Amino acid sequence: MGRQESGRLEWQAAIPLLDNPFLWIDLLKALAVPFVAFGAVFAFILANDDRPDWGGALKTLAIAIVAVVALFVFAAAVIFRNRLEARFVLDEKGAAYASGRAARTAQKAGLLAGALAGSPLLLGGSLLASSMNAVGIRWRDVRRATPFRRWRVITLSNSWRPMLRLYCPDGETYERAWRLVSASLPAGNPPCR
């Protein structure tokens, strides 16, 4: 349950991974960009080929996507045991998220493995993940707050994308968080219902 002081609400939650519809939607969006980009490159290359192998190109893209999804499922199930511990804070300035110890440990292990293996891909991915250890958004930058009561999640978005999802551990924390979010939004940005 969350701890509330005047104008401040703080709580910890275990974010579900494999059974989280928001995470799967975000993963699909993230995979769509490289799929379209690599698809365009393949199409350009194969269009100038005398005997283009469209099936092989599609198979290569499909294998890459399946590999990324399989790695996500493996990491979520084995490394994080389908839960990502996090701490959330709402105060007069905005909303903030900080990842738990398991996520920080995994990111440090990835940095070390990437450095030892000389793998810029692993090192870059771990650096990117490390930059997301703590995320915050100021109330003045929130353009839309969307509640998902069924999942006890509140999505805070800027003008074009979700910036932060607040995962609440119970109904009481969710209701208190939603009231605080609704009251904190700028006058021109009413919350969604």
Task: Note down, in words, how this protein is organized.
By secondary structure, this protein is an alpha+beta fold. The chain has 2 domains: 1-16 and 83-100 and 133-193, PH-domain like (Roll), CATH 2.30.29; 18-79, no CATH class. It has 5 helices and 8 strands; from the N terminus they run E-E-H-H-E-E-H-H-E-E-E-E-H. The strands form 2 sheets. It has a 5-stranded antiparallel beta sheet with strand order 1-2-3-4-5. The longest helix has 27 residues, at 21-47. The two termini are 24 Å apart. Residues 126-131 have low confidence and may be disordered.
**What gap, in angstroms, lies between the N and C termini?**
24 Å
Q: What is the gyration radius calculated from CA atoms?
A: 20 Å
Output the strand order for the largest sheet. 1-2-3-4-5
Largest sheet: 5 strands, antiparallel
Task: Note the quaternary state here.
Answer: single chain
CATH topology of the largest domain: PH-domain like
> So what's the overall shape?
elongated
Q: What is the number of strand segments? A: 8
Domains counted in the coordinates: how many? 2
Helix content: 40-55%
Write the layout of secondary structure elements.
Blueprint: E1 3-5, E2 8-16, H1 21-47, H2 54-79, E3 83-90, E4 94-99, H3 101-117, H4 120-131, E5 134-138, E6 144-148, E7 153-157, E8 162-167, H5 171-184
Antiparallel strand pairs: 1-2, 2-3, 3-4, 4-5, 6-7, 7-8
Helix pairs in contact: 1-2, 3-4
